[in-house]
Amino acid sequence: MPNMEKNRATRNRTIVLSDSERTDLKKDLCQLNTSSSVDEVLNKIYNQDLLEAIDYLPKHFVDLLIIDPPYNLSKDFAGFKFKATDDKTYIEYVRCWLPKVLELLKPNGSIYVCCDWKSTSAIYQVMSEYVTIKNRITWQREKGRGAKTNWKNAMEDIWFGVLNDKDYYFDVASVMQKRRVLAPYKVDGKPKDWIETEDGNFRLTYPSNFWDDISIPYWSMPENTDHPTQKPEKLIAKLILASCPRQGIVFDPFLGSGTTCVVAKKLGRHYCGIEINEEYALLSSKRLRMAEENKDIQGYSDGVFWERNTLSLQKKSQKASAEQ
After folding, report:
1. Which regions span the lipid bilayer (predicted)?
2. Structure pTM?
3. Rounded to the nearest 5 degrees, what angle is found at the Cα of 226, between the Cα atoms of 224 and 230?
């Protein structure tokens, strides 16, 4: 068990594990060692190596794959180290698991794969061999220090693909963005495609493939963990709402600290995930238990996604909705 204890400020909301919690949460973790039915794997976290477990999962049972694999960077995941390599070797690494994971997808299913600038070409190359690429989402990742000898890396990609270009689920109405209107336009004295409120002028807009409204989890956010590459709940919520129907099934083969499964649960979807690192699998389990009591997703309320730095407006809107 890695030593992940740190001295933290009183207001630090990072999710951590006590020794007693680790013992208790281990009861939630599962292992796959025989072929399983869909009902047997729903809403389960498997703490083992992906390639050891995947052949025991049922085929074609997943509506949505969300994959956040190790990028082609040297990184220490609480004792599990991934070492950067050349592009050819990284492509072969992706090929060793992606085709197997795609066998879990329903014929009308969708897939999203996360990557950075260094691994994006490899991910595109391998994905395009097996699925129809529909788009590349680029999202602004404003965190970390600047670089003295290079441009600061502040963007990441998510490749979106489908098995059947003529038949796949996509609900754009569920991922609308609520944005401030800075230059309101009126027709006959009335707002055109925007609304006036006492808190300002707003418009619901269709989402593009560039997302600048995402906040990376940090110490004061209740979803934060010590995982070094944790994805924001808001980011994953957009993928799930757009590409998985209610009561559908979301699968994450590199679960990390559990964000995909946690968000699926909060949004009324089933989930299944695999994570090799026990500490992160336990964090996932704790977060799933927390989601039973609190289904909030920062930046998403009243069925829309809000811009950054609008938390006070979101709370005010939620209060007004509850009073109606």
Report:
1. none
2. 0.92
3. 65
